[in-house]
Request: fold
Amino acid sequence: MANEVILRFSDVTFEYSIHKHLLDEASFSLRKESRIALMGQNGAGKSTLFKLITGELKPTEGSISLTPKDASIGVARQVIPAEMLDMTVQDYFATAFTEKRYNLDKLISNVFEIVNVDLPLDRKVREFSGGQQARLLLAYAIIQEPDILLLDEPTNNLDQAGIEHLTGFLMMYEKTCLIISHDADFLNAFTDGVLYLDSFTKKVEQYTGNYFDVVEEIGKRIERENLQNARAEQEIKKLKAQAEQFAHKGGKLRAVAKRMRDNAEEAEESKVEVRREDKTIREFTIPVQEFPAFFNGQILQIDSITAIKDGVPVTTEREITVRRGSHVLIAGPNGIGKSTFLENIINDTASGVTVSPDVKVGYYKQDFSMLNFKETAFDALMDAMQLKDEPLMRSIAAGFLLDGKALSTEIGALSEGQKGLLAFGRLVIMKPGLLVLDEPTNHINFRHLPVIAEALDQYEGAILMVSHIPDFVSKIRMDEIIDLSTI
Reply:
């Protein structure tokens, strides 16, 4: 029955330590065949909640139950584990099963049709683009035919065609699905409910309706609560003023004054705690590096561009001069070589591309591997500062919602969203002349994206950017588009 509960959290409390409390007596349930969005601030614990569902983590208190008890769970995580990157595609999918599947190649072929991809089974996983790996992650979860499908940021690195295909699949999906995503339009297309993980109360709020309905409902609720409190505050002020007036008159009026004070206290107790909205990062500017007086404005010279067509590099001569202030979008479908093109520029191995001497390059890589996961966020930001200024660094970090606790945490232990905000904080501190941005919206809370887009739009240095999010790109001035599919 579609209305039967398949997963239930009952008063679940979870804490990594005394100082890292993520859930406090959280209760909710998922019904069979429901498609639910899991929302919450970056670092609120959404991916941790997934690990509680799969049993990788155990609750500190409370219980988590499945009906039936042997209900299977498939997870499409944000990234493929490092230890699996050197596996072949065939070996990677073999790990999805506890027993050997003699029809594995057929199962892979079937699931590849579902995720709209065709990849050779003998190639290593690491050889594929971020978008192709995103499809592999989704296929890995689906091939298990789970009773509950958990998707953690499934649209990251997917091109528009991939997002549309995934949306269509989920609209027709007949089992239970729980999705973490910051893509509002994607979520709204198929969800019938929302779980909201509140980073302030540590509770999970449950709502019915599609994504936009829920956002509107939350907004109206906040408006009602603020109005109720405003009325209560007016009544409190009025009662206190009258009580003060009667108290000074003495005699029997003192009893009236006391009654009014009691009424004021009752009015105070009637005030409700207004649901606090997720914090949004502060507006920021990425300063451009100071160039010498003789600098001619040329940041980058492109004489040829290489794309990947049917797995084969294809090089075409192009003459493009990227000057200070030029914003360039690198476009094309998944697997065409966009990320490889950017990475080769960073590594100075891009044939036909020359970065001008002394240009400082700020790199935002989609998997954050430009960061040292073993060092703390504090060290990563301080290392990026030419003139060490800890108060300034902490102020910049606070603007990106990185508090003292986050700064003292190893980068590898931060949420993916926090890593993204840390990466932008480093760019502010670095003051680069060239920004190389590979999917800068990945893992970032949608509330932050307009602020980031405005900062990039106003950036006075040069930008090379890859992004599959049209709404985000539309908010940033682009002077040129290099479409690798035309190479």
In short: The two ends are 53 Å apart (CA to CA).
